[in-house]
Amino acid sequence: MGLKAENRKKALSVLEKIAYSTNEIEYEKNYEELIQLGFKELLSYYNTNWHPIRYEWVRGFMKSIKTFNITTTNHLESLNQKIKQVVERNSSLQSFFEDLLTCLSSIHTEQKHKAINLIVKTSHDYEKGSIEDFYSTQLTPYAWKLVAEELKQSRIMLFCMESNSCTISCECVLFKNTNLPCRHIFFKRIEMGSPITAKELIPTKYTREELFKNYCGDNTVHPMDDAESQFATVSSLPSHERTLSKQEKYKTAMLHCQDIANVLSDYGTKEFKKAISNLESTKIDLLNNNGHTFKDMVQSQILMPTEQPQIPIEQPKVELKDIRIDGRKLKRKGRPKGVDTTVIGLKKKKKANNKEGVMKIAQ
Questions:
Q1: Across 60-89, average pLDDT
Q2: Burial of 130 per CB tally in 10 Å (0-12, 13-18, 19+)
Q3: SS3 readout for the chain
Q4: For residues 124 and 137, what is the distance between their CA atoms, to the nearest angstrom?
Q5: Could you tell me if residue 242 is left (phi over 0), alpha (psi between -120 and 50 degrees) or otherwise beta?
Q6: What is the pTM assigned to this prediction?
Q7: Where does residue 69 fall: left (phi above 0), alpha (psi -120 to 50 degrees), or beta otherwise?
Q8: Bridge partners of residue 207, in order along the sequence
Q9: How many CA atoms does the CB half-sphere of 261 hold within 13 Å?
Q10: CA-CA 20 to 30 A from 300: which of 142, 224, 237, 240?
């Protein structure tokens, strides 16, 4: 749109305010600020693509419809990440579904374990018989976190701002989004003397019993439970090898060439030259026969042995200098090095002969 850096920052700041507007009044205020910036191309683009669907992406408008307070895709991305860790890339269709069902079964078991813990384990953070104890034992942890905040705010309210609220329903954002009891409902019930702890205020979706029934009930069926019967009728599919890239082929060929080089380095000079000549002929054949494989060339040489003259193999004469162990020549035995020197490198004094010793004693 040809905006400069400073203008781009201003526009992004206003658009961020618009995205996080909490109600219609705040949205209109931020939208008016965008108009006052005077960026005609940006305003035209916004009015064409984003303003008509503002109820689908503005945070305040999203909460006014039934989204169960879900405003991000974090849960879906987490599930996708778990599937990627189990399912192999470029796998066959059958193995893909087997791995997918295994992953879903593991996730189902994990959620089932959490549901059992919610029923078996009970917290004693609140006084028994209190309002907090009632809702914390009936609701799931996620729902109780929302209701606890509303209950806290209802006790410090002086009057109710929602004119359409009553003891069982309200027009506020939280109630429209989740159907959970809000601060306005609690305030109205306190004002009218109605009991706050009422099961009719709790949606069945957010109860612990419903969560346990969904994962551990008798009618609960998971796709993995019938996986064996599903795959019993599927014929085994042939495994197809993945096509290698040029770089992978090069690496594989280099590994074989290195092995050949290591073997040839231990050969004698005559055998080494013969092996090199054979490799050179093989190299020429590979370069001249691009459409044929190396296996075809070998078979053609086996089927037509008369075309090439047979070269008699000469038995090389083995001499002492050609004898090697692990690629090294045998060292000739002799007097060890350093026999005439001391530990610090000085030459040792020669011992006197027996005759000279006798003469010295006689004198």
A1: 85
A2: exposed
A3: CCCCHHHHHHHHHHHHHHHCCCCHHHHHHHHHHHHHHCCHHHHHHHHHHCHHHHHHCCHHHHCCCCCCCCCCCHHHHHHHHHHHHHCCCCCCHHHHHHHHHHHHHHHHHHHHHHHHHHHHCCCCCCCCCCHHHHHHHHECHHHHHHHHHHHHHHCCCCCCCCCCCCCCCCCCHHHHHHCCCCHHHHHHHHHHCCCCCCHHHCCHHHEHHHHHHHHHCCCCCCHHHHHHHHHHCCCCCCCCCCCCCHHHHHHHHHHHHHHHHHHHCCCCHHHHHHHHHHHHHHHHHHHHCCCCCHHHHHHHHHHCHHHCCCCCCCCCCCCHHHCEECCEECCCCCCCCCCCECCCCCECCCCCCHHHHHHHHHC
A4: 10
A5: beta
A6: 0.52
A7: left
A8: 139
A9: 6
A10: 240
CB 87 within 8 A of CB 97: no
d(CA 357, CA 360): 5
Share of the chain above pLDDT 90, in %: 20
> What is the CB-side half-sphere exposure of residue 53 using CA atoms within 13 A?
7
* Single-letter amino acid code for the residue at 83: I
Q: Quick count: other Cβ atoms within 10 Å of Cβ 64?
A: 17
pLDDT over 50 at 219, yes or no: yes
Length of the chain: 363
Through-space distance between the first and last CA atoms of the chain, rounded to whole angstroms: 120
The number of CA neighbours under 13 Å toward the Cβ of 260 is 11
Select the more confidently predicted residue: 79 or 328. Answer: 79
Residue type, 207: T
Tokens (6 digits) for 173: 């954002």
pLDDT in tens, 227-253: 545 544 444 445 556 677 888 888 888
For residue 233, how far is the Cα from the chain centroid?
Answer: 32
Q: How many CA atoms lie less than 13 Å away from 270 in the CB half-sphere?
A: 7
**10 Å Cβ neighbour count for 338?**
9
